[in-house]
Amino acid sequence: MSNQIFQTLKELPTPLDESQCVIHKHELLICGGYKQRACYSYHTLKNEYKLICEYPSHVKLYGHCVVKLVNNNNKDRNQITLLSFGGAFEHTLVMKYASVWSNISNKSNEFNNYNKWTKFTNNDNNPIIIGHHCDYRGARAVIGGSNNHLLFITYYKNNISVFDLNTFQSIKHSRLSTNFIRDHCFVSNPENGKWQEMVKTNKQNQMMLFCNCTGLSIEYDEDNTTFQFHELPVCDDIASLNRYAYVCINNAILFFGGWSFDGVSKSVHKYLIRENKWMTFENNLPSPLENCVAVLNEEDNDIHIIGGRDDKNTILSTHMKAKLRIWDVSQLSKNEITSIIEYWIRILKIKLGWIDDFDKIIMKYIFSKILNQYTSVEDKEGVHDCLQKQSWINSNSIIMSEIDIILIRWNKIIKTNFIQNVKQQRVVFYENKNEQEIVNCIEYFPEDPPIQISYSTITIFQS
Fold this sequence. Notes:
This is Kelch motif family protein. The protein is mainly beta. It has helices at residues 2-5, 191-198, 334-348, 368-373, 375-379, 420-423, and strands spanning 7-8, 21-24, 27-33, 36-43, 48-54, 64-69, 79-86, 92-98, 118-119, 140-144, 150-155, 159-164, 169-175, 185-188, 204-211, 214-221, 226-231, 245-249, 252-260, 263-272, 277-280, 293-297, 302-306, 319-323, 392-394, 397-400, 429-432, 436-445, 452-461.
């Protein structure tokens, strides 16, 4: 199944370990890696790479960090600025980037200083080093602040610092309530942007950090320059891991692979932010990976996974992608949702026998989000109630969780006929009081003919 989910793309121009990647429209900007100074642009539509530049020869990369700066006054979306810093060997550089796939970057004069790494300087043109004498190998950073002017940096051993990009000064340092972080997950809470849109005076920043058995919610108050830390749960399956790839999407963080003393992992985990719950998926990476990088291309909702090391410590040149909807059902297109609904309505019309055990079986995957988009379904007097819980998408299949569904009358849609071929399979639930629930799930493939129904399992870790 993993090989069907992940599509292999054109190999990287060179094997990359501990690389950094930033998305820009239809381009993935791949900025160096362990002992690799070359930077490339990968075009997601062309499936091709182009060399952008190389880091200066004196720069040694080992666990560096790259972020995309946000210029609120820049109305030209074709140009962005990247900031590279940290690693085992100090450097702080910036790159003004204009697409290497367009003619604009080849023009003279105005674009002479584009697409090359230059010193990061203050308003007096003095070079600035971020994190001087700090151990920034495997550091992670996010941009925040009410004006996108703050750089939050988390780094070994348990440090967090705030650097003001307007004043070019470090304005806050604190210790995290953990003993060790490196090569970890550090993201802004997706709600930050919504708060800033609703309340312009809001100067609260929320972030999340995961490394091994540590999970932290981090809040920073700009006015008072104070931190607050709150512990978050970490499921057992991921508690021994770091060096994983991760992406933050909507209400969730996805984790791919990772390293522990027991070896290299190929597992995929999901942390639901609002629900404060973890999931471990059956659909793993095709092979074990550590130190790879993951990035979400919002143009086509693909997650790209780039480079890394395998369980034989070989640095890889692999590049693969998978659809976000595999792990996030809210990304289904309207056409896909329509096809799924029509499929279930069609098979539910099969006039077969009836058993009392299945009075409560119904299409739970039509949760509230889908119903809100398709009021015509509600208009047919079909749905009286449904539970608002999420489903999982597997390539061309749907996995429905927890079939403990309330009875829904379908009246004119299916009258009183239900699925006979389901009755021959018992949907059994096992509940463990030790905060773990194992759920048997129906997996079906929307191919007609024939109709195929099989079973699989998802483990849900509850806080």
